[in-house]
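Researcher: Go.
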Amino acid sequence: MNQIPQIMAKPRGAVCNLDCEYCYYVDRMDVYGSARSARMPDNVLERYIRSNISQYSGSPAQEIWFSWQGGEPSLLGLPAFRRIVALQQKLCPPGKTICNAFQTNGYTIDADWARFLVEHDFLVGISIDGPPHLHDRYRRDRGGHPTYYRVVTGLQHLLSSGVRVNALTVLSNGNVGDPAGVYRHLKSLGIEHIQFIPVVERQKDENAIARVPQLDKPVPGDQMTSWSVDPHDYGRFLCEVFDEWSCHDIGSVFVQGFEEHLGAWIGQPANLCLFSETCGLGLALDYNGDVYSCDHYVYPQYKLGNILDSDIDRFAGNADQIDFGQNKRNSLSTGCRECDFRFACNGGCPKHRLVVNSDDDLPANYLCPGYKMFFSHANGVLQILKQGLQMHRPTGEIMTQLRHRAVDKAKAEGKIGRNDQCPCRSGRKYKQCCGMSSQGF
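Model: Structure:
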């Protein structure tokens, strides 16, 4: 295989100290029992570390990546992660570097954790959904209490210690209506790398969400959970944030989706499985060593085996997993195959293919209207960015052009007044921003 499989290790399984209402992973507890004491044994940890390192033995890649998620991985404890790092360093081949990614809710991150994470150069993702009134809508602790301020305290420990941090922001019906508020708040916290993750779940019954569409076949009239994002709201969110980012923040704030789409317009292959033509190289490792096709497919039907019995590359290379990955391309609906933006989207995540249009067609992606809205809106700017990068123009010069473009467009459409918000998305009134040099103001 040309690409090295990546595995998302869950050292505490689904165990978490929060009780986020929209969390899809809580339902995975029924796969391996109500294991609140779940903890990855030392032999599984060692096997994972050895197997992952062995994948890189014949590869020119210099960085060996480990990914720790959950549940909440910090609940494994700082002493355990000190042992993990020691073993990684002991087994690391000459000429290679160990790299760790660590996704946390930030709730238990203190100064000791921050010192450890920066000492070993962990890349840390922290889950935060915007300002307090939006974040706390669904992200509460097990006592039902708000979590925002403890999360931000954890974030401040990380940033003040110099840890590399990115924000993972879940977009739900609770925060998708305030694009500027969410985006600007994340920037105000000192966050420079952002991922926006839309939550999309069908309601199975009042107590549970439905399984992935390959297991619970979608039917017309399926109900979505109350927290799921509306696809049109999702599209509007992306459009508004993109406008502000492209006019002001290129090169200083990195929004994963926007960077990915710019790469698609330039002709680069997708880095994210979400937008790649096929998938199957992102596996999930449960606390007991069981390996699954994907983090979103932790069901018995997608169990590939146990890491104590085989190596990661063999799981990724077996026939079932290859079929799983190629099915992303092979199960595209007619509308998706004929779409002008297929090169940028490739149908999105198969988990989101929930919309049944006809009896003889394959389900379409629930988020498709939002994607099309965004791609249509962003196309002109992405073309300008593409040309600017190819000509090696400074990003500041490109952003100035884009601000002028936004203002000229608003003028041509008659959608601008001196007391209106400036079309360049600065957050200031037009008369105090781009209108200051205009005649008559």
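Model: The two ends are 63 Å apart (CA to CA).
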